[in-house]
């Protein structure tokens, strides 16, 4: 299986400046390649592809030895592949009559990742194996210290360096990562995603929703007000932008940490986990509408959307999927329709069954339960039926 490992880099001041310049040169290469494609097709009707631009790299590096020539040709090829993938996605969406989204030029704050092939092409993981501190070698930058907090397994295929605010990270994409199966438990559970609780199991356990964004809302609001008062292009504005970015990065790290811990607890406890197949993008779509057809309850819908996104359902389910695969657990996704309105005891489905957000009382049989626990039991039943049908087929 393929897996990624992310570690914090601790570059020196000189290395940090070199990393920044490396990002800038790759950004300029990306933008120049995009302009080349646009101009060739717009003026001559000629389609430029990755192979054409990759073949020109040798001449570009020769003409600019102190700029593009400083960096690994392999990393520059990866940047050109990144542009090629953007065009492939554009044409695929256009063919499917979706919102296409033509590739855009990258501004200074919108290009923060450079990738290297891991095999003899300007980057080497654990470049000094006899050094007690793990180091990453990058051509033109040197041996950068890595804060390696866990073991890397599998074969390293690509090495990516990413800037997040004032921090630098390395991301290793590894193939042939061995699975780490956990002992069988024989237990099964359905989970209902929510806002009051991140998730509720069919056993009645509630996983706390820490509301990370809400907890940092006051500090974020103050930082953004400070940013709004700064003059564009000034040093103080750049500092204000960095403060806002650092706060958002902290919220993201806290959310990821909570999701990892909650997913690991579920994977350790249950052999089969059933969850809702949620369409989060559709669920968090704005309700503002148009001038001709304005939306209703716009403020309430905006608050609900913010709460859903703050809970991080998508992040949690993605992490749960990866951990379940590695641990040898079975994950089943079911249609969430009517799971919160159906009685888990008699099967009666009606809107009146949901008395309040937290209370469920069946209008037919009188069964009373916590609404999320009742929904989780329905989700579990639907998942086990789906699993049995698949095994019988």
UniProtKB/TrEMBL annotation:
Keywords: DNA recombination, DNA-binding, Metal-binding, Transposition, Zinc. It comes from the Bacteria. Residues 180-285 form the Probable transposase IS891/IS1136/IS1341 domain. It comes from Nonomuraea muscovyensis. One of its GO terms (molecular function) is metal ion binding. In the N-terminal section; belongs to the transposase 2 family. Residues 313-379 form the Cas12f1-like TNB domain. InterPro entries: Cas12f1-like_TNB, RNA-guided_DNA_endo/Transpos, Transposase, Transposase_put_HTH. NCBIfam families: guided_TnpB. This is Putative transposase. GO terms for biological process: DNA recombination; transposition. Residues 1-43 form the Transposase putative helix-turn-helix domain.
């Amino acid at each position: 299986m393929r897996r990624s490992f992310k570690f914090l880099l601790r570059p020196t001041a000189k290395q940090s400046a070199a990393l920044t310049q490396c990002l800038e040169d790759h950004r300029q290469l990306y933008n120049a390649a995009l302009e080349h494609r646009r101009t060739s097709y717009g003026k001559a009707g000629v389609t430029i592809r990755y192979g054409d631009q990759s073949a020109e790299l040798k001449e570009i590096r020769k003409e600019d030895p102190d700029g593009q020539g400083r960096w690994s040709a392999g990393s520059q090829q990866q940047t050109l592949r990144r542009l090629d993938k953007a065009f492939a996605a554009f044409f695929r969406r256009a063919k499917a009559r979706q919102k296409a989204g033509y590739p855009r030029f990258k501004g200074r704050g919108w290009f923060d990742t450079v990738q290297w092939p891991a095999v003899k092409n300007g980057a080497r993981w654990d470049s000094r194996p006899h050094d007690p501190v793990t180091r990453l070698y990058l051509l033109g930058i040197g041996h950068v210290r890595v804060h390696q907090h866990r073991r890397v397994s599998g074969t390293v295929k690509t090495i990516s360096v990413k800037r997040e605010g004032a921090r630098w990270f390395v991301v290793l994409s590894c193939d042939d990562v061995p699975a780490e199966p956990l002992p069988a438990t024989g237990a099964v559970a359905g989970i209902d995603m929510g806002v009051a609780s991140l998730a509720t199991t069919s056993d009645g356990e509630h996983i706390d929703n820490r509301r990370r964004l809400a907890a940092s809302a006051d500090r974020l609001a103050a930082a953004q007000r400070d940013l709004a008062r700064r003059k564009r292009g000034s040093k103080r504005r750049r500092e204000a932008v960095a403060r806002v970015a650092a706060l958002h990065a902290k919220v993201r790290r806290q959310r990821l940490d909570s999701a990892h811990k909650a997913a690991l607890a579920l994977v350790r406890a249950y052999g089969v986990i059933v969850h809702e197949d949620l369409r989060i993008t559709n669920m968090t779509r704005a309700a503002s509408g148009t001038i001709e057809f304005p939306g209703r309850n716009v403020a309430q819908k905006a608050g609900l959307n913010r709460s859903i996104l703050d809970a991080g359902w998508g992040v949690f389910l993605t992490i749960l999927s990866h951990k379940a695969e590695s641990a040898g657990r079975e994950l089943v996704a079911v249609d969430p329709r009517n799971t919160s309105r159906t009685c888990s005891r008699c099967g009666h489905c009606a809107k009146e069954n949901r008395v309040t957000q937290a209370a469920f009382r069946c209008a037919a049989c009188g069964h009373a339960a916590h609404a999320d626990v009742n929904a989780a039991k329905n989700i579990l039943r639907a998942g086990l039926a789906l699993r049995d049908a698949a095994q019988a087929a």
